[in-house]
Each structure stands twice: as structure tokens, then as C-alpha cells.
Design brief:
Serine Threonine Protein Phosphatase 5, Tetratricopeptide repeat; 69% helix; 683 residues
Length: 683
């Protein structure tokens, strides 16, 4: 059978030299996003570790173990190394850091290079995905990809090494979408298998990859002729993968979703009646940041984002915008319009960013806009392409750049890409190190308790490291002022109080240091540092007690373990001196009694406290300790008699009431137990 000559002619015609040149050119376009990534972020290669890079890389015990630490990283909460358990299972980025550590140590230049390479690869994958979704529109795809990559809100993700979890999650999720789409066309089971693998890797990078699961059915609906049954089966497959991830997470962490505590910076937002309008306010703020990326910040915690009510007009503006977006998405749903798909994908990608309504994670962050920027980029590109003329018969775009509207088309893209690129390149140096980041962002984040704490802490650290006295004093003064502003904004901010305690310790004002440590979070580190302040005051008993408590909380606390021998030795020397010292001072014997208590030598302690009371009969504190020693020696009758004696001196002593209630309870006299318990509550 002879081949159809007309068909052959058509094939030859379709493979004209101009067509081949065009196809070849389109193949090279995929490398443009990769090169663009280095243009945008090449100036980050000399940056140091910044912000969360320190706890997640530099000070992360298992990351620093390299190959040996990988097995531990695969079984731990994401924040476990910082003593925090938030129920996050994201081992992939940690494992990549451990591998890099094994290969080249803590080299920030190489780690920044890896981030840029991954970002460039992300741009290539986005280009491939859009090329498949929007066929025969290479220029549209390229420009949408470049707008996505150039957006300045991405600086937090790319310039901060720790945020590799965001890059890996989005990269693997986008690869999964690309391969699902390929399978829908080719029926290649290898594509589907790879899609499952990349989706699982996306989940292992960050749990927000669940949004990819929600995008899959919409992508198949909008860009394939597949029916509901097929779409449901594909979606169900990835639901199964998600369930598998959750089961793995439960096996590794012992929890599915975790139960992260309400962060101290989130606590003021607990009122649900205000949280919903505040969430709408945040959504509107996100949109503003997407359109006008000025005064970017790495922190939007309390009180940088104000708590607003329904009376705030911006809440209603935001609600109105949400309503319009939903209406546009629904209106264009049946026609499978690009705008509809872009709005839906944007909304799905935004869900982690507005999860503040559930008080899980941060209040607001620019990194939450990493994925949503793609939906916005497609919409912007689509609207600008509407400026181009079309053929009357076919409706195809005419790339004739002579008409005025076509010139406006070129100008629009040139302005957007140039503006975004310049903003990104200019923002990158801010992320060079902690001081450059904090000192820059504090100018626009004066209402953030967290930012003030970070900046103040860094100033204190630099003061400690400085050798010039004038510079040291200047840095310390400014640092303390920033920390005081932090606790003024949020009086519950334990981390700021901790740093204030450290600052005053460095200034050798140990009483003030202890005062602030007492207001800080009562964790192992706080107790260990407070112990040092007591040690410097010469109160070795209290120092030893606090170090013991610190080690009970965390046996691996280096500060407590290192200083325990020093404090113990000082304690023993002081005890010997006090034992041999002839004194008639009640306070001397009171302190000696406390030292015996620290040794659990209650018999000697009892004698010392009795001597103190003998020298000063009105010494209520010493008399209470006499009663406590009797209690520890299980001499309950004398303990009761002593606490009654305390009440003779001080009829409203709450401690005496509580102790008597406890003692009578031990002796089975529940009437008197209840009597003294009520007395204690009344006082």
C-alpha cells in the first residue's frame, strides 16, 4: 500500500526549517530559569549562617554528626534538637544538611550554592509543568516562570539555608504534578510511580505538601479530558500516600498531628472572636505584600500584626476581595478558564499561610507565600497577554510588537521583572548574617516583640565579644533597651527575660540578673544560668540546688555539668569555713543550716536553725526551717509544735498553715487538715 502523498507533504511542511528552529529554541528556554536563579541569588554565596540556620544546622547535634546522624534525623521531631516538640516530621532537609556536613563540614558557601541550585531546578520544573499545561505558549510559560522566580518574598526561602525544607517540598510537589499530568496523557506507569515517590519526598520535606494533593484533581479537571471517576481514582492514590506518610510520622514521633503549645507570641490571639477577623486582615496583608513587596520582614509575630476586630475596615476589604476571588473562580469553572484554575491553586497554596486561625505555627511569614506566588504569577501573565492582538479566524495570539498595546505588553513585563529582580537582589544582603538581618528589619518591625528580642540579643552577644570598653558598654546599653522594649510589648515573653538575665549577669549585676531569670521560662538552661548568678553572689547552696534541678530536667546540659564541680567545691570550702567560724550572728547559722539541708544532713541543719532562733527568737524564717527539718526527720509532733509556734509569732503565716494542713493529713486528722487548709487559702 502506497503512502498517502498528501499526508507526507503535510508532514514535510510541518517540519519546515523555521519550525525546527522554533522547536530548538523552545528547548533551550528551559535553561533560562536555571540561569536566572544565579542572577537573582548569586550575591548570597558569601553569606554566613543566619537565624534558624544556627539551631537547625550549626548547633544541631545530629546534623553535625554527618553520616552517623542520619538515622537519628529520620526518627526525630523537626525541632527536637532545640528542646521543642511541635509534631513536625521533616527529615529530608536535615538529612541533606548532614550529608553536606559529612562532605565539607559547616561551609555556608556550599550550602547557599545548593539552595540556589535547587531553586534553579525548581524554576526548570515549573517551566516544564506550565509548558505541559499551556501548550504552544512558550513565551507565556517563560514569563510566568520568571515572574514567579523574581518575586522578592522568596528571599527568605532561598537566602536562608534552613528554609530548604520549603524549596524541597515545593520542588518535589511540582515534579509530582508534572508526572501525574504526563501519566494522564501517556499512560506510562513509570511516570505515575515516580509521581508517588516525589509526592512522598515532598511530604518528608514539609507537611504543607498536602496542598499538592488538593491541586491534583483540579489540574486534571482543567487541563485533561478525563472524567470524574478517573480523577477520583488518581486522587485516591495520593490520599493513600498521604495516609502512609501520617502512619510513618506516627511510628517515628508517636503522634499524627502533634499538639504544639500556643507560642508565647501567639497567646494574646487566643480569643476566637478576634482571631477570625485578624486572619482576614492577615490575608489582605499577604495580598498587599504580593503586589507591593516593600519593607519586607522576616518576622511578623506579636504585635507586628495587630489583633483586630470586625470593626476594622481593612477586614471587610479583605473579605470583599476573598468574595470576588471565589466568585471569579466559580464563574469560570465550567469554561475551565486559566483565571479560575490560578485562583483555586492560589487559594489551596495559601491555606498553610492563613492557618493562624487554628493557632498552629507562626502568625504570618513571607515564606508562606513561596508556593502561592505561582498562582498569582500565572494570573498576572495572563492579564498582560490579553493586550496582544489575536487572529480573527483562529483566535491565535499575534506577536506583532509594533502596535501600541503590544509595546505596553513588553513594557509591563519589563517593568515587573526588572522591579522584582532589583528588589530581590537588594534584599539578599540583608540576610548576610544575624546582625545585618536584625538591624535592617528592626527599622520596620518596631512592634514585634520577637524582632526586638532578636536584635537585643545580638547586640548583647556582640557586646560580650567586644574588647573596646566604650563599644562594649554602648552595645550592651542598646541591647538591654531593645530587650526591655520586647517585654514591654509582650510581658509574658520568657525568652526576652532570659536574655535580660544574661545581659545583667555580664554587667555583674547579679541581683537584677536573678530577678529576670525568675521571670524567664523555667527550663534547664534558665536554672543553670541563674545558678551561676547565685554562685557569683556567694550563695553556693542555692547555686547547687538550681544546678541539680537543671540536670534533672536535662542531664546533658553542658553549662550545668561543667559548673557543678566548681560550685560543689566552693560549697564544701564555705561549709568548712562556717563550721569552724565562731559566730553569734543568727544569719550565719541560718546559712549554715541551708548548706546542711543541701547535703540532706537534716540533723545538723536542725541544730543550726535552732541556734539561729536562739540568737534571734523572732526569726520566723529560721523557725519554719526548724519545723521543716523535724518533718524531714519524721518527728511530726515537734514539727506541728514548731509551726504552731510560728503562728504565735505571725498569726497569718501561709507557709505554717500549709505545713500544718499537710502534717495533720499525714496523721489522719482530716478535720484539722481541712481547717488549716482553709486558713491557708484565706491568707
Amino acid at each position: 500500500m502506497k503512502p498517502d502523498k498528501r499526508k507526507k507533504d503535510r508532514n514535510n511542511k510541518s517540519r519546515s526549517p523555521s519550525s525546527e528552529i522554533k522547536n530548538s529554541f523552545n528547548k533551550y528556554l528551559i535553561w533560562v530559569p536555571f540561569v536566572f536563579a544565579f542572577i537573582l541569588y548569586g550575591n548570597t554565596l558569601k553569606h554566613d549562617f543566619t537565624l534558624d540556620d544556627l539551631p537547625q544546622i550549626v548547633n544541631h547535634k545530629y546534623v553535625q554528626q554527618g553520616w552517623a546522624g542520619i538515622s537519628k534525623l529520620a526518627t526525630q521531631d523537626y525541632w527536637a534538637a532545640s528542646g521543642i516538640s511541635l509534631g513536625y516530621y521533616r527529615p529530608l532537609s536535615h538529612i541533606s544538611f548532614a550529608v553536606e556536613n559529612a562532605l565539607h563540614g559547616n561551609n555556608p558557601t556550599i550550602m547557599h550554592l545548593v539552595n540556589i541550585l535547587l531553586y534553579g531546578l525548581t524554576g526548570m520544573v515549573v517551566f516544564l509543568l506550565l509548558s505541559n499545561l499551556f501548550r504552544k505558549m512558550p513565551l507565556f510559560v517563560l514569563l510566568a516562570t520568571l515572574i514567579f522566580m523574581a518575586h522578592p518574598v522568596h528571599t527568605e526561602v532561598v537566602a536562608n539555608i534552613k528554609s530548604r525544607d520549603e524549596i524541597l517540598s515545593f520542588l518535589n510537589g511540582t515534579l509530582a504534578l508534572l508526572l501525574v499530568f504526563d501519566y494522564s496523557k501517556s499512560k506510562n506507569w513509570i511516570s505515575l510511580a515516580l509521581a508517588v515517590i516525589f509526592f512522598f519526598l515532598s511530604l518528608l520535606s514539609k507537611e504543607t505538601a498536602m496542598t499538592t494533593l488538593a491541586i491534583i484533581p483540579f489540574m486534571l479537571f482543567f487541563f485533561t479530558p478525563k472524567k470524574g471517576g478517573y480523577i477520583a481514582r488518581i486522587t485516591l492514590l495520593f490520599v493513600t500516600v498521604s495516609v502512609g506518610f501520617l502512619l510513618l510520622k506516627h511510628a517515628m514521633l508517636g503522634t499524627l498531628s502533634g499538639n504544639p503549645p500556643v507560642d508565647i507570641n501567639n497567646y494574646p490571639y487566643r480569643d476566637i472572636s478576634l482571631r477570625i477577623p485578624t486572619t482576614l486582615y492577615i490575608f489582605g496583608f499577604y495580598l498587599w505584600r504580593l503586589i507591593f513587596p516593600f519593607r519586607l520582614l522576616y518576622d511578623y509575630s506579636y504585635n507586628q500584626i495587630p489583633q483586630v476586630s470586625w470593626a476594622n475596615p481593612l477586614v471587610w476589604v479583605s473579605l470583599f476581595i476573598v468574595a470576588i476571588l471565589i466568585a471569579l473562580a466559580i464563574k469560570n469553572l465550567k469554561r475551565k478558564n486559566i483565571i479560575s484554575f490560578s485562583i483555586i491553586s492560589f487559594g489551596i497554596s495559601m491555606t498553610p499561610g492563613i492557618a493562624f486561625v487554628l493557632l498552629r505555627g507562626g502568625i504570618m511569614a513571607e515564606r508562606f507565600l513561596y508556593a502561592p506566588v505561582l498562582g498569582i504569577s500565572i494570573i498576572v501573565t495572563y492579564l498582560i497577554f490579553k493586550l496582544l492582538p489575536r487572529e480573527k479566524t483562529t483566535g491565535r495570539l499575534v506577536y506583532d510588537f509594533k502596535p501600541r498595546l503590544s509595546k505596553l505588553f513588553i513594557a509591563s513585563f519589563a517593568i515587573i521583572l526588572t522591579f522584582y529582580s532589583i528588589r530581590t537582589i537588594a534584599r539578599n544582603p540583608v540576610w548576610k548574617n544575624n546582625m545585618t538581618l536584625f538591624s535592617n528589619d528592626i527599622k520596620y518591625g518596631r512592634n514585634s516583640a520577637q524582632l526586638c528580642k532578636h536584635y537585643g540579643s545580638e547586640l548583647v552577644n556582640q557586646s560580650v565579644a567586644a574588647t573596646d570598653k566604650a563599644l562594649k558598654d554602648s552595645l550592651m546599653t542598646e541591647g538591654v533597651n531593645e530587650l526591655l522594649r520586647s517585654v514591654e510589648i509582650n510581658p509574658r515573653f520568657g525568652e526576652a527575660y532570659f536574655k535580660l538575665g544574661y545581659a545583667y549577669y555580664q554587667m555583674r549585676d547579679f541581683d537584677t540578673s536573678i530577678e529576670y531569670y525568675k521571670k524567664a521560662n523555667a527550663n534547664s538552661m534558665t536554672l543553670a544560668n541563674m545558678a551561676l548568678a547565685y554562685y557569683m553572689k556567694g550563695d553556693y547552696s542555692e547555686a547547687m540546688k538550681l544546678l541539680k534541678q537543671s540536670l534533672q530536667m536535662d542531664p546533658e546540659n553542658v553549662t550545668a555539668r561543667t559548673n557543678m564541680p566548681l560550685v560543689t567545691n566552693a560549697f564544701n570550702n564555705k561549709l568548712k569555713n562556717m563550721q569552724t567560724h565562731k559566730s553569734k550572728d543568727a544569719n550565719h547559722f541560718f546559712d549554715l543550716g541551708n548548706m546542711y539541708v543541701e547535703q540532706q544532713n537534716y540533723s545538723e541543719a536542725l541544730l543550726s536553725f535552732k541556734k539561729s532562733v536562739e540568737l534571734k527568737p523572732s526569726y520566723v524564717g529560721a523557725l519554719i526551717n526548724v519545723g521543716n527539718c523535724y518533718y524531714m526527720l519524721q518527728d511530726y509532733d515537734n514539727a506541728i509544735a514548731t509551726f504552731e509556734e510560728v503562728l504565735d509569732l505571725n498569726p497569718n503565716n501561709k507557709m505554717a498553715f500549709r505545713n500544718l494542713s499537710h502534717l495533720y493529713g499525714l496523721m489522719g486528722n482530716y478535720d484539722l487538715q481541712q481547717y488549716y487548709d482553709e486558713k491557708a487559702k484565706a491568707n
